[in-house]
Design brief:
Strand content: 25-35%
Distance between the termini: 75 Å
Order of helices and strands: HEEEEEEEEEEEEE
Largest sheet: 6 strands, mixed
CATH topology of one domain: Immunoglobulin-like
Number of strands: 13
Structural class: mainly beta
């Protein structure tokens, strides 16, 4: 009887291990330009290691394989990191840009979960010209800020409003 129970347990354990990974992921994530996000995707049984896995951006004919066992796509080089925990396929994206927003797909063992990433950029309040008084030989501070302090602009450009519209600063 004990041998039979042991055999049943071994077979059920083997079936569980062979069955692969059942995925779990949230539906949507919001990030901010210049920041980082984690797109969570994991096997529901944390001990399961998927036989095959990959991340896609905008899945479809013109989509990008962002990550697979072959490595990371050039667009995401030095910005994408996959968790190294067994069964955890979470993707960390850093230095977000507005173009990173869209549909991401986590695939493992023939299953997939889609996650929509929304990236919010910097919006300036348009209150019109702000008069600043400066004196020759002294410095002035020109105020400029995003309406939401969590957001960071992708680039900054200061232009002098003159007849020639001279570029003062670009970063």
């Amino acid at each position: 009887m004990e041998t039979m129970l042991l055999c049943v347990w071994l077979v059920s354990s083997l079936i569980h291990m062979i069955s692969g990974c059942s995925l779990s992921a949230p539906g949507g994530v919001t990030g901010y330009t210049g920041g980082s996000v984690v797109l969570s995707c994991s096997c529901t049984d944390g001990g399961t290691i998927p036989g095959s896995a990959r991340w896609l951006f905008q899945p479809g004919p013109s989509g990008i394989t962002l990550w697979s066992s072959g490595g990371v796509h050039n667009r995401y080089k030095d910005r994408a990191l996959i968790s190294d925990s067994p069964g955890n396929l979470s993707l960390r994206l850093s230095d977000l840009t507005l173009s990173d927003g869209g549909l991401y797909r986590c695939e493992a063992d023939g299953q997939f979960e889609d996650i929509t990433l929304t990236v919010k950029g910097c919006v300036f309040s348009d209150s019109g010209p702000i008069p600043i008084t400066g004196f020759t030989g002294h410095s002035v501070v020109l105020p400029c800020a995003c309406t939401d302090v969590q957001k960071k602009p992708e680039q900054i450009k200061w232009t002098a409003v003159t007849e020639s519209k001279a570029l003062l600063y670009f970063h």
